[in-house]
Amino acid sequence: MQARTHTGRRRLLFAACGTLLALAAPLAAAQDNYPSKNMRMIIPFGAGGGSDVLARTIGSVIKDLKLVPVDILYENLPGSSGARGYKEASRRKNDPYVMATVSVSFFTTPLIGRAPFKQEDFTPVAAISMSPYVLAVKADSKLKTLEDFGAAKRLTTGTVGVVSDARLLADMVSKQLKVRVDVVPFDGEGEITTGVLGEHIDFMFGNPSEIMPQIEAGTMRAIAVSAGNRLSSMPDVPTFKEQGYDIEHTMLRSVVMPAGVKPEVIAYWEGVMRKVAESKEWKERYLDRFKEEARYENARDAAALIKQTNDRYVAVMKELDIIK
């Protein structure tokens, strides 16, 4: 009787182990087969804008290089300064088939308190390039060097929206060069350029793709770049740090997924983004075309840089009494 009892127990044990193995097999297969359906790329802004171009260029390189076995479906969800799109992405917690790109609104909209999402609702995947800024003046401006900026009693610049990278950089210039800088709001980047050329404002911050055509036309002159190193597209323009000022700020073009996505999924897309960033297709279609700088950061480092950027926005928004 005792032998039979032991035999029965062994059978139950084997049966239980078999059940566990049977349950584990589909999970392993699911991981091996990921992704098994099309990805959803949420773009929190309208077609044709910077975020839209970034997302679709990433997708086109992935498709042409056959980096993943599925398609990427783009979904433009503009509205409320990115809040609509980011809300939709954030509510897809644990969903390994949703991605979104990072913009300035990813930081500023939640800080203002008007967004139904927060950064903790996302998991960074990777940073794929760097968008630096160029301090530029009208070609015949009396402001020739940063020392001239510091010697001025009062200067004016422009920004689109109350809080922007240009606004943040203007605040840095004011502090570092000890000069009062008045920031004038404009409806678009083109109006800011017109403001500089029409001598309505003294200087502007713009991306290389915005400033270079003006320099080539002889209408503007670059004073400094906000990156840590000189730009490959503008090698003759020194950085702020080269000139003795602790000013560095760039926008990392990054990709995020909803919170709760498994680490192996993040690792998968981290590897895909690395291949995109290292490809000649990415260089030709995005970096060279828009005068962006190459910069790949893995998920961990991208997360740290996103936090660093957010801290900068918090500081400037508190100083402006936008948040407490």
Could you characterize the architecture of this molecule?
There is one protein chain. Helix content is 45%, strand content 20%. It is built from 11 helices and 11 strands. It has 2 domains: 39-131 and 250-319, 3-Layer(aba) Sandwich (D-Maltodextrin-Binding Protein, domain 2); 134-243, Periplasmic binding protein-like II (D-Maltodextrin-Binding Protein, domain 2). It starts with a helix and ends in a 5-residue tail after the last helix. α2 (50-64) packs antiparallel against α10 (280-290). The chain has a 6-stranded mixed sheet with strand order 2-1-3-10-4-11, with helices on both faces. With 324 residues, it is an alpha/beta fold. The protein has helices at residues 2-32, 50-64, 83-90, 105-112, 146-151, 165-177, 189-197, 208-216, 263-277, 280-290, 299-319, and strands spanning 39-43, 72-76, 98-101, 122-131, 134-138, 154-160, 180-186, 204-206, 220-225, 251-258, 293-297.
CATH superfamily of the largest domain: Bordetella uptake gene, domain 1
Class of secondary structure makeup? alpha/beta
Shape: globular
Helix run count = 11
What is the ordering of alpha helices and beta strands? Answer: HEHEHEHEEHEHEHEHEEHHEH
CATH T-level topology of the largest domain: D-Maltodextrin-Binding Protein, domain 2
Secondary structure tally: strands: 11
**Span between N and C termini?**
77 Å
CATH classification, class level of the largest domain: Alpha Beta
Q: What proportion of the residues is helical, as a percent range?
A: 40-55%
- Average per-residue pLDDT, rounded, comes to 88
The domain tally reads: 2
Physical arrangement of strands within the biggest beta sheet: 2-1-3-10-4-11
| Architecture per CATH nomenclature, i.e. the level-2 architecture of the largest domain | 3-Layer(aba) Sandwich
> Stretches where pLDDT falls below 50 for ≥5 residues?
1-30
Largest sheet, described in full? 6 strands, mixed
Report the portion of residues in β strands.
Answer: 15-25%
